[in-house]
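Re: export button greyed out
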Amino acid sequence: MAKPIQLLAKSSKLLHSLAEKGALPISELAEELDMPRPSVYRLIDALKLVGLVSTAENGRSQLGVEVLHLARAVLDALPEARAAQGELQRLNQVTGQTVYLCAPRGSRVACLDWVRGTRVSLLALSPGGTLPVNAGATSRAVLAYSPGLLSRLSGAPFEQLTPKTLTSLESLERDGRAIRERGYSVSNEDVTLGVSALGVPVFGPAGELSCAISLAGLTDDILGNESEYANELLTSSSRIQEALKTP
Amino acid sequence: MTENVDASAGGMGLVTKSAAVLQALAASGELTVGQLSAATEEPVSSLYRLLSSLDAIGWVEQGTKRGKFRLGLDFLLLGSRLEAQLDLRRLALPELTRLHEASGETVFLCIRRGFSAVCIERIDGRDVQIHSLRLGESLPLGEGVAPRAILAFEAPEFVARYLRDFASKSPISAIAPDSAQLVKLLAETAAHGVAVAEADWVDGIGGVGAPIFDHRGHVVAALSISGLSRRLFSGEFDAVALVTHAARAVSEKLGSDLRDGGVDHGQANPVAS
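Workaround output, generated via the alternate export path:
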């Protein structure tokens, strides 16, 4: 039967099934997890006991609200998320676009928080999700200001998300130089066709890269307001940096 | 924690232990293995193995300092998916129905859009003369009990902006002819956690509205009841208690933690309190 790691891996898989598909009956979970039903019952009981799973009105299992409390606690524990929250709201109010806060995690860049704009259904990235470092405005801002990261990752091929995604070492090096000159990154449909974004880096108290923020939306809306949006992002970035100095 | 546990008591104990670790991290932010051991009463040696498993599935990650752990980003993903699944209208409908059945009056569910509150659900009661706030219709936030229940719990900057940009046109509403009057009403609403109008708009019609909070403690909606004042406040039923209870029940379904008491009044704005 399941070793500890396997049982936790099954728990994680179960929560992800419920996250992707909503409330599910035991029979379907047993199939998804490839576990006998009695074991699924016991696992669900244990997860219900700690609030990670709850019972829906029709007897199916669904994610428990404890997940929401933990999600909030994740952000509370991240200094950059606390420091950025007010600025993310401000950027959304000023521009109406979707605002992202992302930070490097391993060889990728993860979305920590967002404030949604009106056309959110187009966007590929949401909290907890990740993008490769070569695609997206925050990714390429992170890459441009993380010395050595590009050469460290260049051993494996870069992911191609759209025909416009930069995947060669040379093009990414050139992009990095352009970003450092301008002070912000431009993601022109390199994650999703029709969607563009502008991103700026945020540095920690010791001058190291901490995270990046971006404004994302329809290409015409974003690139049509490039200089105005870039200025707003840079203003927010320096305010977040100030807030990071005084924890 | 043994290597080979079946999925019975011992195996499920692992879920409980993991949850204890998550709870400790949620309460404290970042902790060392030693601190986690003290918080969960698990030996350090078994915690190391547990933490490496939890790290592998994204439930914890390394903190800013070496040797410290914090909650993992996987909960951001799970949380945002659950949030999208929690459809406010669907969650509130059983409570609205109960409120309607207990009172026989018209009940409303409103959400904020800009400086207005939009009715997204309505169950008609015995007073057919209540024409305002049909499904999809909106009222300014200063008017009516449901809109006011929302406004009273918005951030102070937002309330100030409403008063400046919107409510500067007089009269603000039938019951609050000027902004000083509205500020006073908002203060009452924030203090009591509920908006009460014994004869609010027209023809002796009154109402009671209460705010609904999400898991962040932000006000996201309000539900309300309206009817002839003489019946609503006749003592036949306790309208304030019914509405407050219904709003709390919906907030809890949205993951709002009303137990810590930091929601109802913690979010009340200084302008109004």
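The two ends of chain A are 46 Å apart (CA to CA). The button fix ships in the next patch.
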